[in-house]
Amino acid sequence: MVEANITFDMLPSVDLKAYAAWGKKAIEACRKAHGFVEGRANRSLVGPTQVRIASSWQNVADWGTFMQGAWVPLDTELRIYATNIKAELWGPSPVTPEPFRP
Would you state the torsion angle of the CA atoms of residues 85, 46, 92, 62, taken in this order, to the nearest 10 degrees? Predict the structure, then answer.
């Protein structure tokens, strides 16, 4: 399993209604994607305009297929609402491959 993080800063003049409609399209595209496990969206507690979208995928190939396919038009549209867009891909640690809990 891999985790993908996309972070960005919302533009100051963003139309929140239009951005929310984009978000619904992005969620639906993820849900339909092969290998998609789950997703979360977060806002920074320090800066209200910072956003992180975290998603889990069965493997790197599934994530790559999504990023080169369904994500392309979503990424183009996201740039209307956001700046400083960054993507990171994370895999399990060889030392601690499983989640740890209390």
Answer: -30
